[in-house]
Amino acid sequence: MNDDQSNLAETTLFRERRSRWEILVLELSKAPVSAWFGLIVIGIYCLVAIFAPLLAPYGEAEIVSTPFVPWSWEHIFGTDQIGRDIFSRLIYGARNTMGIAVITTVLSFAIGGSLGLIAAILGGWLDQFVSRVVDAIMAIPSLIFALMLLAIFGSNILSLIVIIAVLDSTRVFRLTRAVSLNVVVMEFVEAATLRGERLPWIMRREILPNILPPLAAEFGLRFSFVFLTVAALSFLGLGIQPPTADWGSMVRENASLIQFAQFDLKTALTPIIPAATIGLLTVAVNMVVDWFLHKSSGLKS
Amino acid sequence: MTVNDSNHTDVLLRLEDIQIEGFSDEKWHPIIRGVDLTLRRGEVMGLVGESGSGKTTLGLASMGFTRAGCRLSAGTVIFDNMDLSAIPVPERRKLWGTRIAYVAQSAAASFNPARRVIDQTIEATLRRGLTNRQTIEQDARVLFASLQLPDPENIGERYPHQVSGGQLQRMMTAMAMSPRPDLIIFDEPTTALDVTTQVEVLIAVRNLVEQHNTAAIYITHDLAVVAQMADLVMVLRYGKEVEQAETRQIIKAPEEDYTKTLWSVRALEKEQVRTEDIVLSIENVDAAYNQTIKVLQDISISIPRGRTVSIVGESGSGKSTVARVITGLLPPSTGRVRFNNDDLPASTKLRSVDQKKRIQMIYQMADTAMNPKQTVFEIIGRPLEFYHGMRGQQKRERVQELLNMIELEDRFANRFPSELSGGQKQRICIARALAAQPELIICDEVTSALDQIVQEGILRLLLNLQETYNITYLFITHDIAVVKAISDEIVVMYQGRVVEQGMKDDVLSPPHPDYTQLLLESVPEMDPDWLTNLVKNK
Description:
The structure holds two protein chains of two kinds. By secondary structure, chain A is mainly alpha-helical. Chain A has one domain: MetI-like (MetI-like fold). Chain A contains 13 helices and no strands. Chain B folds into two domains: 251 residues, P-loop containing nucleotide triphosphate hydrolases (Rossmann fold); 197 residues, P-loop containing nucleotide triphosphate hydrolases (Rossmann fold), CATH 3.40.50.300. Chain B is 37% helix and 26% strand. The N terminus of chain B is likely disordered. The chains are: A mainly alpha, B alpha/beta. At the A-B interface, α9 and α10 of A face α13 and α15 of B.
């Protein structure tokens, strides 16, 4: 009996507290309605993006009918100015627009986050140098700057991603640096330095876990903004190039349809639909972020 | 218990069967479990207990106030024949600040940094509206003068950051006294101060309270302080009264075992031992921040192996800077640090991992010294992995061993720092330092943030570890009681210089240099007449 007990103690001693999966399920069961709404919307968007070829009735760039066909069963949201099926393009657009937004946001966090951490830990001239460069970039209106850079490097998807990511990383840098500075002065960071830990360890293990909540919140917001920037650039004609479908350019291409509201209300709604798609996703992402923020910054700490 | 109930007019405050509950984890937990207290005009009651005993909660309750998330679930608070628990909050608020005042532990956090001190001092009195502003300001200046503040006529014109901590603490007392309240609640008003400043504040507070016949509740964990200040002492534990008696009696002959253990803490003492084998020596070190602000001047200290050297001095004396020089965080501008008879590179960056391993550090605030997002296992395990390359089963066993060495159970390995008490946190920090198997541990004020009982536990642990593993300590502290308990040698520092150094008994016995004399004199003793005698001799 006694042996049993000590064995039990032995095995439970270093047991994982609770697996990540268990924590996730537990948290989800307590999540508010808004968070559930956000999660479900994001889930649907992701499914649509992944299974686009299966879901779309027509091809992405396929000209299937005459231009500006009104809403019908054959073409749910009608066709655009050269006769492509708008519903299909909307589905493919999820792939392009969201894919680009995700990659861009991750990239801007990789750049801005690591630079911010390094600047906060090392300080000195390096911090001064990076901060001033960031200030200079931020002083230029980002949309105009992006337009200029796109004009220089040509508007292909790669330069679109890199340019938006770099411009956006300035804000990520500022946030990361500011919140890290509060953690860097803590004695456990000094203890790690005295122990002889290297920079990557201090960045990743000592500081990053402590600044994750504000960064995650910022991630959601940045994601939405990147989305809007891509859409805005596409609207201006320098973003994703035709015939690739994306929601921003779809708004632009069909914008003039709105004038027909007095003759055919449904057709006039056509440019609103891709805009609403963007809006809904933005709202959904921010609902999830709000929930996460509430969880991590609540009464616990 | 000699409170005379026949003299009803004299009774200012009566707490009857106070029960307070706090809300956490979606449940109400009792904090105060039925305490009675009677305080007459002009009387000072000392509330003593370790942290978590509910002394602050009870102190606030005597104002008819509970903190957010707490509630008065039973009992009555009768102040000057008014039932505070029955009258509505806006009515109570009229009493607060004018008839009942509260002096918080941290004056720096209680003053509004954007307003002049004088405006804040007279705010409550002005609100009471008995007389005009000039009279009140004049009265405040008189209070400043009686609190021994320098330049009492003009010091009120300053902003809070322009005066020192001790001065601000006295100004807060002036703020509390300004409306001539009937009752003042002092919540650890001197805990954050140096001993030399503490004495001044204590004298000033005691004189004022006596002069105006104010009743006071004095909350503290420092028994020697309470012995000077209070007429009556109540000992609290787990939200219940352990014992209550007149100060002289409770100090001479405490009845309860718990009270006796509280009293015995200061008895911890260690025999000094002389050793010639020097582990670390600092030779003629000067150090400055930003190359301009000189903090250390010509410091030479040598630390013998397996012994404890204590550095004492008030804040700003440069004692923590010595630690920064030794660890290499602040390279000295001149002089050198020698370790095992070899020169240590001045900067941490230039030192080898092995050199870093041999000198470990324990901090004052265990809260900020541990990463809140790492478990105890990760915190203790990292130096094992980093310095000794331990992994898997071996690392687990060693962590277990270290936890046992610091007298904690194995199950603590899975906890996060936020799930530990103050003393447990400090023990984990000790374990982390031990994990490296160092030769020298620098302890920077490691017990100052802890209660006396917890303090004693930590000091005993450190002494045991020293005996078993022959570890050397450099102990930085401003607490002379701690110095007596743990050191073999003492270094007294003042304004960046070493005033005196030598074996403990030599330094602690006369003759002393002036500063050492002042420092030793300022340490409160358990004798209730100590402060009175000190004032008389001055």
